[in-house]
Write a structure and sequence with these properties.
257 residues; globular; archaeoglobus fulgidus dsm 4304 fold; 30% helix; alpha+beta; 25% strand
């Protein structure tokens, strides 16, 4: 599995390679202007001119003994800030939990859910790591390469790498580079991604931790950070991932009732 991850990393493209203009997604003002233009231009098909951004999150189901035996992948597709489709898929867990090898445990459910989408994703955001990974092949990279779709990893904790600055009580919009160290199968000093502060409290007595954002495939690290900030709402997580997380909880109840 580790050898396959190295092959995945070799196939991954850690720079911008989009089939759409990412600027409206990274710049809310540009997005508003584009929407206004689409409304006034009768030749513009506003339903299809904007990229489809997909959020992916995972949940797990247990058997009668209380052991996790199935993975549930929830996928939410958005276009122009609106949800256009939601799907989920459940597959059996065939690989034990091993840090750094989660794509082999959870990837089947994710691929099954993505296959059932009627819309075609232009960009996929994962609740998990991309290039910030021991072998530069987190779940966002693995699935991004398999599907050959631009992808971004959005993790809540730092798996590996070295922060190039303090991350305590950062102001919203701040980013801190994360570079490869000797725990990562990459030249030391390679920028793997960024700690991105999407939201912050006004109070000096409490603070929100940053997200750890990295390119999965066909996205550069700076653009990945820009996109996560641009796709944010009023919550810490970018909206596609937040809604996928919410939908994963909702879909899980179908199997608990």
């Amino acid at each position: 599995m580790e050898a396959l991850q190295r092959e995945i990393a070799d196939a991954a493209v850690f720079e911008d390679e989009f089939r759409f203009d990412p600027e409206p997604l990274t710049n809310p003002l540009a997005a508003s202007a584009a929407a206004a233009t689409a409304e006034t231009d009768v030749s513009a098909d506003s339903a299809t001119s904007q990229p489809t951004v997909v959020g992916v999150d995972q949940s797990f189901l247990t058997n009668d003994a209380g052991d996790q035996d199935r993975a549930l992948s929830a996928v939410v597709a958005m276009r122009g800030g609106e949800v256009v489709e939601r799907v989920h898929a459940v597959t059996d867990l065939e690989t034990p939990y091993i840090p750094g090898l989660l794509s082999f445990r959870e990837g089947g459910a994710i691929l099954a859910a993505l296959e059932s989408l009627a819309v075609e994703p232009d960009l996929i955001l994962f609740d998990g790591s991309g290039r910030i990974h021991f072998r530069q092949a987190g779940i966002a990279t693995h699935i991004g390469v398999v599907r050959d779709v631009p992808s971004i990893g959005v993790a809540k904790s730092l798996l590996c790498g070295r922060l190039q600055g303090e991350t305590d009580n950062l102001s919203a919009g701040t980013r801190v580079a994360i570079e490869a160290d000797d725990s990562v199968d990459a030249p030391e000093g390679t920028v793997l991604g960024y700690a991105v502060q999407t939201r912050q409290y006004d109070s000096p007595n409490r603070y929100i931790n940053p997200l750890y954002v990295s390119p999965g495939h066909r996205v550069g690290p700076e653009t990945a950070a820009d996109l996560v900030l641009g796709l944010g709402g009023t919550y810490k997580l970018p909206e596609p991932v937040r809604l996928a997380d919410q939908y994963a909880t909702e879909a899980k109840h179908e199997f608990l009732d």
